[in-house]
Design brief:
- This protein has six helices and twelve strands.
- It has helices spanning about 15-30, 45-55, 120-140, 155-165, 170-175, 210; strands at about 1-10, 35-40, 60, 65-70, 75-80, 95-105, 105-115, 145-150, 165-170, 205-210, 215-225, 240-245.
- A six-stranded mixed sheet has the order 3-4-2-1-12-11. A six-stranded mixed sheet has the order 5-6-7-8-10-9.
- Helix 1 packs parallel to helix 2 and helix 3 (about 120-140) runs parallel beside helix 4.
- The longest helix is centred in the middle third of the chain and has 18 residues, at about 120-140.
- One of its GO terms (biological process) is double-strand break repair.
Amino acid sequence: MNFTVICLNTWGQNEPFEKRMRLITAEIRKYKPQVVCLQEVFEPVLTQKLIKEIGFGHAFANLAAGLLILSHDRMEDKKEVKYQHQSTLENNDRRFILTEIHANGKKCWIGNTHLSWKAADETARTMQTRELAATLDALKAPVLVMGDFNCTPESEAMAVLSKSGFTNVYDRLYPGKNVFTWDNQRNPYLKTHAAILPNRRIDHLYMNQAFQEVFKPQSCRLIFTTPDEAGDFPSDHFGWLATFRTWGQVPDLTPSL
């Protein structure tokens, strides 16, 4: 049995907002994921639209931080953490949210985050991922965390997650290959930004070993990459569609006394 997730930075309320929301909603409906993690959702319109039009029964959000998790499976537990280390170069509220679900009868935690964005903020991102990794390690459970990390897999910040036993889902499936979720050549919205940043893969899904013992990754590919007939894209980022096959048993990670 498959377990499918979608991850996307929605680009907030930037125009053409209403059209972009329709494009995002249509693509999510097309793939019928069990879980969706969105960033830059700052007001409840998109949340209610997705719940109503696609039928997600459960939602967990912090709209101040722009984070939203939607799930067809019941959320057993929820956690929200504000990063102690906030960048001095921006005014954004950086947090991460976590929820425990039963996906295809298997218990796991789903995380959603959005790290500081400026190129000079690598220290801030590294400190934030240290906080994130510490919280995820303490769960002692299968974890899949995703979001807009604003840095590449080779960065110091992402090395923190790797050293904590987390694996990049795309790299696990396609070693040596690369794609861009921030693509100046393909996405014209990037030309409207004040800061022009290079093509990069900055949106990621990371899984720990316990998650891989229950959910075997099958595919991970870019979506939200096609404009409509007027040339409008769903977002300034491309998003992810990842599929896992449910297998194995949830491991007991309780420390021995």
